[in-house]
C-alpha cells in the first residue's frame, strides 16, 4: 500500500510538473516568419572590410584555436576549410594542450600544433585568431594566449558562442558585438559594457570581430577572404562553395526560444528509446566543410548523434589537410544507420540537403530545431 501511495504521489508530482511546463510553454512566442535581412549601405560594408584588412603580413597567418576536450565542430573546421580552399593565408589549427581535439557535438581531429609550439615558431603572433565556441569559456591557457595575441596586433574573431571566450579574455569590454542568439543574454549579463548589435551576422570593433550562430562561419570566412584578397577572389570561392551572398545582414528577430522549438526538444528528449547512433564514413580527400556541417546537424536532433567510421583506425586526411580520427571502423554501422555528407554537392548546400534528410527521418519540427540551433535561416514549417 505504501509503495502504491509513493507511486501515486510521484505520478502526481510529475503531472504537476507537466502542467507547469505546459503553462510556461504557452507563454513562449510562436515562430517569426522569415524576413529579408536588412540591406547594408555600401559604406558600412566598406568599413567592415577595411577593419578586417591584414594587420601585418601580405599573406596572413591565421590561427584557429580550440581546447582539447570540447570545441564546436563547425566553428573549428569551416574556417580552416574555407581559408585553405581560398589559399589566401597560412592556416594553423591549434590546441590548448598536446593531443587530439575532441569536437562537439561530433568528430575528433588532430591539430597542427599547440598554442605553445605556435608561439615558439611565430613569436610575433598571428594576423588573425579565430575563436570557436568551447565547452568552457574560462580556460586560463586560452584566455592568456588570446590576450597575448591581441597585444601583438592580431585581429581576434569570435565565431558564434566563441564571443563568450573572447569576452572572458576582456577583449570585448566597451565594444560592439554579436553572438549566437541563445547565448546573447548570458554574454550581456556577464559583460554589461558590451554593446549588442542586432540584425548583423558580423560585427567588427577595434580589432575584434564577432558573429551570430554556427552557420555564420561561412559568410564570416568569405568576408575575410574578400578583405584579404578582394571581391573577385571571394566570389570565386563563394561559387565553389555554392553561396550567393555573404554580407553581414541578418534577421535577428527570427531566432529565439519559441514554443515549437521547446516542445519539439522536450518530445525528442523524452523519447529516449528512439534515440540512435548514426555513422558517417570518412574518406580520403573529402571536403571538411561538408563533413562538419552534416555531422554537426545530425548530432543536434535530440534523436541522434553521429560517430565517424573509416576502413581503418588511422586518421583520414581531408581535401585541405585536416586529419580526422575515426570513432570506429567500417562494418560497425548498419546501412540504415549511416548518413551522408553529400560529397557531390557544393559544401554550402550540404546543410540544406542534411536538413531535408533530417525532416524525412524525424519530421519537419526536428529539422527546424536543428536550423534554429545553427542560426540558419530556414523557413519555419507552420504547425
Automatic annotation (TrEMBL):
PANTHER family on file: ARAC-FAMILY TRANSCRIPTIONAL REGULATOR, DJ-1_PFPI DOMAIN-CONTAINING PROTEIN
Residue span, DJ-1/PfpI domain: 64-226
Protein name: DJ-1/PfpI family protein
Pfam family, one: DJ-1_PfpI
Native source organism of the sequence: Pseudoxanthomonas indica
GO BP terms, alphabetized: regulation of DNA-templated transcription
